[in-house]
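Hey all, sorry for the wall of text incoming. These are the four entities for the joint prediction.
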Amino acid sequence: MKVKELATAADVTPDTVRFYTREGLLRPSRNPDNNYQYYDAEDLRRLRFARKARQLGFSLPEIRQILGQADEHHSPCPMVRDVFEQRLAEVEREIAELQQLRTRMVSALSAWQEMPDGTPDGHTICRLIEHWDDPATCSGKEH
Amino acid sequence: MKVKELATAADVTPDTVRFYTREGLLRPSRNPDNNYQYYDAEDLRRLRFARKARQLGFSLPEIRQILGQADEHHSPCPMVRDVFEQRLAEVEREIAELQQLRTRMVSALSAWQEMPDGTPDGHTICRLIEHWDDPATCSGKEH
DNA sequence: TAAAACCTATGACCCACTCACAGGTCAAAG
DNA sequence: CTTTGACCTGTGAGTGGGTCATAGGTTTTA
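and here's what came out:
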């Protein structure tokens, strides 16, 4: 298979196939005549695997590591379980953060309903933002 | 004020001050003797404004635009209200996406409890991932 | 006078692609 | 046989919002 055929088979763009190849996730053979890359069924398996793993939240370095384990005939499953639980915790943290942001935004919006627009006077830029009290000022940094 | 003084006053790192200066959000004067940058109370106001706006979800280009409006003595408030509502919608979309991901992850985890680890055999890499059915395959792309 | 703490500019790095550019190759149609 | 169009190649830049490193120059403190 050439690049576009593989891309179509895995429902990604040819750019993604080339990118994954550069990143070492796929190992096509080369035709010395025209320097084209040719992929086989194993590459398709790897690509599909990589896409599923991405949807589950794995990063490319993690996927590369998983594939590397499999290449050496070690079961990657324990690592998969491990990394996955960390990722889940991270996702839950991100959700909590965004919900906090959303709360801040909604409360700002409702406070703004009663505030008139002002013209910058050298002391204020936009009261809407400057006179907004951050409810999370005391919370720690994250990520 | 020099870089670090301003940074301390606004509770950011000196790197951030320098970065915002490069980005044109702050306009310090220069001492021609040593090429140091000196900031005034107006810069501190701008920096604090920028940080509050960032916490509310505004991007740096948006903040630059708001500051630019204020510099020309136009009220940036209508723009602020406008951009803000779009950002809120975006945040809500991101939350929904992450919650969908979380749902996928949780269901995968519970399905995995009954699955044994396997060794790669040339046909599978990791059953956990390969035998997982994506519940969102039919939904459209986003962002 | 020497060390510590500050300042400068520039560029790489993070993430996972995506897009653009310039040029080479190949199939089918005229 | 030639043209057209679809494909292929590698490289490099762009996304966002900083952060960190490098290699130097300056100022303050002991």
